[in-house]
Here is the input.
Amino acid sequence: MTTAPDPSQPVSRGDIESKLREIRGEVDTTATAAKPAAMAVAGVAAVLIIGAVYLLGRRKGKKKSTVVEIRRV
Here is the structure.
């Protein structure tokens, strides 16, 4: 837990840098923890999109295919 700054002294560059390092450390820890879940979600989403495109393309191909019937006389 951080302490409140002393209002009688100005905020120095070192105070700002130390606070930014503290915040960055928390963000890095959170990002590292969330990375495997995000990768799994991205993989599943990619598979679903590719599957949907495949199925829609197959359906469109069947709709536009021409049937040619040849009869001998």
Observations:
- The chain has a mean pLDDT of 84.
